[in-house]
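lol ok so funny story. i was supposed to be doing the assay writeup but got distracted and ended up predicting the structure for this chain instead. priorities right. anyway since i did it might as well share w the group, maybe its usefull for someone
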Amino acid sequence: MLTVLPGRDVTGDAWIGETFAAVSRVPVGSRGPVVWPFTPYYSGNPFQAVLYGGFADRSMVAAPAFRVGDLLRGTDGWPADLPLVVHLHWLNQVLAGASSAAAAGAAVDEHSRLLDTLTARGAKLVWTVHNALPHDTAFEAQEVRLREEVLARADLVHVMSPLTAELVSPWFTLPADRTYRCDHPGYQGVYPDWVSALEARSRLRIPEGSVALLVTGALKPYKGLLDLLDAVDVVNAAAPQGIVLVVAGASDGAPETERFLARAYLHPAVRVLPGKVAESDFQVLLRGTDVVALPYRRSLNSGVLALALTFGKPVLLPSGSGSAPVVAADPGAAFLYDAEAGPEALVAALRSLLGADLAAAQVAAAAAGRRIDRATVAGRFADDLRGWADTGHLPRDHAEALPVDEPPS
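and the output, tada:
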């Protein structure tokens, strides 16, 4: 799996040493190792550790790097008999420091040059499409060109939603002959889970009889927070304390986010836990609430949705979300609404929560969570990509290969 501990230097000589030490630990007699650098590496996000959870058993060395440029020194003179696959994740870092369109364009050119250098050294390229464009895009034309340049060079494009090609089509086109789908994995076993629902609701001060709605993760305008709060007010006007909104996460500082928080702090139906959520606190949030709200204005994949299903919590989300197919086989796991129909659709969805069978919804959500079980998805991903690295054959798409779930006896 990972070859360094969080916080360790993964650039230059340290990267070379850690990577080849991991290669040396591949058991003799097993398949030859494949070195799999991935970038950018975010040590505070468990997604990559979960995604690569099956790699070690397939003699694949997942080697984190913070930036594409950090791989140049480590791959100079790369052994011809040691397969090298560079896996790109989020691309927002590439243009993050650009202060003008010209600077953004130059950053795209430099990134493309770095990729060309890596491929000239024998590396294959894989890109996971996490979102269409960064949610806080400043230079849209350059962000689009960046993705087009990556797609022109990528040997394999990994998507997690079957709606990806459709949802990104206003900006770029995915190559069907090089696109592979495997689900966003769940987070089973990643976070503590010993707090009871009764204790969690007490800690969050949820009144008896109220439906507790959770918003968590980074607080950003695209997540529709003000829209959600407006809808809660409409519903609670007719059913006082019908819905309690729990908000936990760090603000991005955007004016819209700050306006939301200014209202939320003073709102009797809102509980605000500001700042990054501690790992031990996710269990309180998820055991103490009834439904996880994802009223995002634009969404392709959602780690929060995977986390909600891991804890057996139903979700509230737009029917056009890229995450909607995750719960399609278990309809009770989601309360869907048509975001294009206007604010009243969200209000109606919230009203439906007041009379819903939430216990049944949790059973459905738990079933959906088992479909994206961490070990199962990581095993599929590792098997498929090891096979692709060995043969060049495109892995099978798992869109139609989700297991038929049965409730535990």
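The longest helix spans residues 101-120. Residues 1-7, 399-409 have pLDDT under 50 and may be disordered.
back to the writeup now i swear
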